[in-house]
Design goal:
Layout (H helix, E strand, L loop, with lengths): L2 E10 L5 E4 L6 E4 L7 H7 L7 E6 L13 E5 L14 E3 L8 E8 L2 E5 L9 E12 L2 H6 L22
Amino acid sequence: MPRVVTFNYTLRDPGGRVLDTSAGGEPISYLEGAGQIIDGLDAELRSAAAGTKTRVTVPAAKAYGERDPAQMQKVKRTLLPVDGELNIGDQFQTGPDRFSPVVTVAAIEGDEVLLDANHPLAGVDLTFDVEIVSAREATAEEVSHGHAHGGGSGRGEGSCGSGCGCH
């Protein structure tokens, strides 16, 4: 049976720069194997017990993947769903749907814009400093729904409630 694991973390790039952290906020809860965190971190935390503090290095291939040159595309500026000034490094969603891809402006060449649809962390090896807050067996309901219930506490209280899309 998969577990629900709740943890605090600090994420760093290869240069040691902090990219993200749960410090000062709620810990993260996830259902093992459900694709809620990157594969490399999920695999490394599989046997971790509550109270464990560890550093996990996840190679790019098991994090957000390697950079894919096929994800770069030149597009006419007039076709982009962005009004106003456009700068290198700007990011925007390619469509109105919340699942539409997010792209980054990689270059602007006259009336053409080079867009990069790679994840911003593609090609980057990641280091996580992790503290496991709790780890428990998932309920049958959590397994069938594909995610942890009960919020960030990791104790499994309650159920999905409204808005999670389970019901």
